[in-house]
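The records we work with from here on pair a chain with its fold. The integers have meaning only within a learned vocabulary of local backbone shapes. A complete example follows; check for yourself that the lines match position by position.

:::
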Amino acid sequence: MIAAISWVPKGVAKSVPAAAEPPSKEEIEEILKSGILTKSDEAENGEADEETDQEMDVDTSRKDNNDEVDHESAVADAHNEDSKDTTVDLTDALRELDMDNYDDEEDGIELFGPGLKDLYYASNDMDPYLKDKDDNDSEEEEDTAIKPDDAVIVCARNEDDVSHLEVWILEDSTDADLNMYVHHDIIIPAFPLCTAWLDCPLKGGEKGNFIAVGSMEPAIEIWDLDIMDEVQPSVILGGIAEKKKGKKGKKKSIKYKKDSHTDSVLGLAWNKEYRNVLASGSADKSVKIWDVSTGTCNLTMTDHVDKVQSVAWNPFKPQILLSGSFDRSVLLKDVRQPSHEGFKFSVADQVESLKWDPNAEHSFLVSLENGTITSFDIRAANPSSTSEIKPNFTLHAHDKAVCSISFNPLVPNLLATGSLDKTVKLWDLSNNQPSCIATRNPKAGAVFSVSFSDDCPFLLAIGGSKGKLQMWDILSEDAIAKKYEQYAQKTRSKSK
């Protein structure tokens, strides 16, 4: 399944990603310390694990319902058979080489036949068989090169109990068919739930190319997308410091790092104005504000009484943060005044997703578990009023939960919605009178994530339970083409 999608701005990614350096001894020890309990420990603490898992209850409706397979026993049987075959093969090979009499050979070279001594060269440059080595290297670099006009998309994916980040390339092409492929991927240790791209220069320079990942674990990992085959995140925010096994029938003792979340991280939002700032929402009911450059938590807010599913910074006023919760509320707060109770917007069901309108600084949308979308104007939040804040409109958009929404960055009032009912819809929200202008079943299964790109505004990336990234060219829809033409004409007339 694909749980989350993030676009990388064009021209940001390195043309040829660097190769990862092998971890140091200290890093290996750190990995082992932070690793999962051994199988024997898990067996001893089965009951404790079960109780802990029940506490980590996170929107399980989003997981695939595939039947479980006992991979462990199957792999063990295969390993035993391979071991037997390998032992036999090695025995035969050693007998054939007659290693007991190896020292009796004059120079060892006779093992391979006479006349091969002339094939030794003082350096690789003198070897004629390696004369095209540089050409091969350049061809390999060209194959892995990311061009400035290529679009880069990062998918947080889980398949067969393996979680990873897939870095997709969408080549700039005038062809009707889109050329897409996975450039490289990054194995991550936990089931991913959300992502946020950020360019804070964590390794020096002016900007970087990083992806923050929230997962079923309490830690937030930040990975460098410009490194291939990386095994360690660049930064880890929070997480488990120590895990001790308990006696049979008792829970494990878990010690968390300072200011860490204590449950799954469900929502992330990077602040484009204050580029070192990242907001996170968790199943532990809290919202945290992190400084990713120092790896520290600057603020923890506990205003919600249930899991926090989504967080969103206001692009016009970057100190203003929205947080949406399973407690059926959206809270607006100025993080400069954390002691202020903020403004609460009540909604009809559990919050799935939040988005600010990029063309109206006072408006935001919230999508819900019951398939509806609600629009609010924050100017309706009157400090002196105790009455409930009324929405601009409420739209029954889908038959099941609306997991993801995305505003088109170019055409005002154009919204995409993705749902567990396996459909993706495009909406015209003009004049607060929403109308559906296109519907598609992208064959992605239950849809968990939809996302427009600033660089490719008419391409909608779609991810769902089937685990295959889908792309919808929305200009292929007559209604969208007509709406864009109207927008273009209006823009041209204003510019005259």
Observations:
- The helical segments are 25-33, 39-44, 46-55, 71-97, 133-144, 478-495.
- Residues 71-97 form the longest helix (27 residues).
